[in-house]
Structure formats: C-alpha cells, structure tokens
Amino acid sequence: MIQEYKKVLSWKEIRKLNSWPELKDLSSSRQVYITLVCIFKAFGHWQVWVSLLLFITLAYFSHKVGEVFNLYYGIFNIFGLLGGGGASIIFSIAMSVEARKHLSEELKSVPPK
Which of these, 41, 62, 44, lies nearest to 109 by C-alpha position? Predict the structure, then answer.
C-alpha cells in the first residue's frame, strides 16, 4: 500500500494523474459520467477519508498558527493558505489514485463502437 503512494509522488507521475488517455475515444458526456462514477467510488476507500481528515486538521491548525503569529497579508492568513494548499495536494493525490483504480472496471461496462 505505501509503495503504491511512494511511486506516485514523483512529479512525472503526479502529472499523469490528471490525464486519463483511456477516455479519449469516448463521447464527452460518457467521459464525464465515467469520471464522476470513479470519483464517487473512490470515496469508499479509507485512504481518501484519512487524507480528507488530514486536510481539514492541517488547514485548521495552520490557520490557528497564522493567527497566533499574526501572519496576515491584507485579509489573508498566509500560514493558513499555505497549510491548506499543501493539505489539498495530499488529498487530491489520494483521490486521484483511488479513482484511477476504478477506471478499468468502469471502462469494461462501456459498449464497443
């Protein structure tokens, strides 16, 4: 399990997560449908929920640290923005990995041309 995520953390692998070349031959409505189904199925995995919990706690505590040290730029809490941004990267990687696992089984349900 951990090895799977270590492999994903290279920049080249992260860029591949945003592209699903398997969907290029399908109609745009079918692409959207399959993508949404895969994303909803990904929420059934514990890794996604743990990363979401990590996202929430890291964003909250980084915001509180920014308030304690008064790190504001105008109305924005800089430390909170950086903490929330880093946590969102962790969540998006976990979500993409788990959604991609469901892609092949969803493509089997697509009728051939």
Answer: 41
